Structures are given as C-alpha cells and as structure tokens.
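Hi R.,

As promised on Friday, here is the backbone we talked about, encoded as structure tokens. Could you run it through your design pipeline when you get a chance and send me back a sequence?
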C-alpha cells in the first residue's frame, strides 16, 4: 500500500482560515486572448507539482500543464508564484486567471470560485516517524496527538471533522511543516505522501507512512466566478489533454510513474 500511496501523488489543500477579498476584477476569456498572455498561479513548495530549479525559476507538472493550456489557447504563459493561503484570493481578485497547486474540489471552495473538470487525483495518507506505533489513521484521534499541518490545506478540515480529539499546529508551507515533524514538534502530518518526498529527504529521520489510504481527491483548475467563458473553454482543453494522453505523459515525466487513480476521460461535463 505504501507504494500505492507514493504513486498517488498530490497534495490536498482547502479553504480553512481563508480571507477572501471582496473586489472582483477577473478577466473574461476574450480579454485573456486579446492580451496575449494567461496568468496562472503555481505553488513552488509542492514538488513535483511546482518547485524552483537551479535558475530559481518555477518548474514542475503544473507549469508544463499550464504551458499546454497556453499553447492551445494561443497565448503566452505567465507563471505567478502563489502559496496555499493566498491562491484563492488571487483568483477572486483577478491577480491570476486560474490557479493550480493541487486545487482539490470541495463545496466550501466552490462557494467563492469555480472549478474545471479534474486534471489529476490525490490519494491521502499519514506521515509520521518510525518510532511511533500507529498502524491506522483512526488511531490518531487522541488528545496526546499533535498534527503539523499547512495552513489552508484540506487535511486541516479533515482532522477537524474526523480526528476531533487531536491537536493541530498550523504552519505556512510544506518545508516548514515537514521540518517541524522531523524535529519532534508534532506527532504526524496528513497529506499526500508522494509530494512530501523531496522535503523528507532533507532530514535524517526514519520516516513512516501509515499504510491506510484515507481518501481520494480530484483536483481541477480554480477560476473566478466572474471569468466569463474561461471555465467552459478550459473544460474542453482539459478533456483534449486527457484524451490525447498528454496529461498522463506530463504526470509520468515528473512523478516517474502513472497516476495511481486515473481521472478518466469523459465528454460529459
């Protein structure tokens, strides 16, 4: 099961604690085409979805996928760095045209932004250290447990709903969260383990993944509710990228293996 979790890849991020701006200045599809550039939010702390390369440029699955979107639309791609807490406010305020970075679709987020059809999946697991005895995620529902989580991520809400007796320490990004766990400042972390690999490798800790899959999420592109025509066009483009096998090709390039839970192409959306 561990291999399956490692293969699943993707980080789940939610709306917990989000402050959303009230102004709406999103561009329509026509305005994006006329400008010749599409602005896409990518989180560089979620390798291999997004990360900085040796030239300090953001690369990864999200950048390659967004490049295919831009190419299909016939415009240039502008990558805008985003973090977990600010990515939805960036969409709502029109600072970016759509956001990537493991945008898990859920009803709470859908109150403030629109989602496209899924681009990829996420399979959720528990990261802890080898000295811990846990074998099932439900064993973490105890007052002695402290989760170290990224502020604004979907697992925070999951813990609130399903592991109510545990405590939670919130940090701003994944490198800090994994470092805190390595330093013993928490018991465990819930997220998609595949995306933690690069951060885990920086610490001389005997890591342990609790081999119980918690859930499977579907991630799309997040767009403003005011971006007239953009979501419909993106749905068609995403369908074509799935149908031509381009999405799987880009995924395998960055993750080294196939998506554990394929999205599945469908013309109905």
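Update: got your reply. Pasting your designed sequence below so it's all in one thread:
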């Amino acid at each position: 099961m561990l291999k399956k979790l490692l293969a699943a890849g993707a980080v789940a991020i939610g709306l917990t604690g989000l402050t959303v701006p009230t102004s709406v200045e999103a561009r329509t599809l026509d305005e994006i085409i006329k400008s010749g550039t599409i602005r896409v939010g990518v989180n560089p702390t979620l390798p291999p979805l997004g990360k900085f390369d040796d030239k300090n440029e953001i690369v990864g699955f999200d950048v390659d996928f967004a490049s295919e979107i831009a190419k299909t639309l016939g415009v240039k791609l502008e990558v805008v760095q985003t973090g977990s807490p600010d990515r939805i406010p960036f969409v709502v305020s029109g600072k970016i045209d759509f956001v990537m970075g493991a945008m898990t679709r859920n009803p709470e987020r859908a109150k403030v932004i629109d989602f496209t059809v899924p681009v990829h999946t996420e399979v959720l697991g528990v990261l802890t250290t080898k000295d811990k005895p846990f074998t099932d995620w439900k064993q973490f529902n105890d007052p002695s447990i402290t989760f170290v989580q990224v502020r604004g991520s979907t697992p925070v809400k999951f813990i609130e709903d399903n592991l109510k007796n545990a405590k939670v320490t919130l940090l701003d990004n994944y490198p800090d969260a994994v470092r805190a766990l390595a330093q013993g400042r928490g018991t465990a972390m819930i997220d998609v383990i595949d995306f933690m690999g690069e951060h885990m490798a920086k610490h001389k800790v005997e890591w342990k993944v609790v081999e119980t899959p918690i859930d499977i999420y579907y991630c799309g592109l997040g767009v403003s509710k005011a971006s007239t025509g953009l979501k419909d066009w993106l749905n068609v483009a995403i369908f074509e990228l799935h149908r031509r096998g381009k999405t799987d090709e880009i995924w395998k390039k960055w993750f080294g293996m196939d998506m554990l839970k394929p999205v599945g192409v469908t013309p109905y959306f």
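One thing I noticed while checking it: The chain is about 30% helix and 25% strand.

Thanks again,
M.
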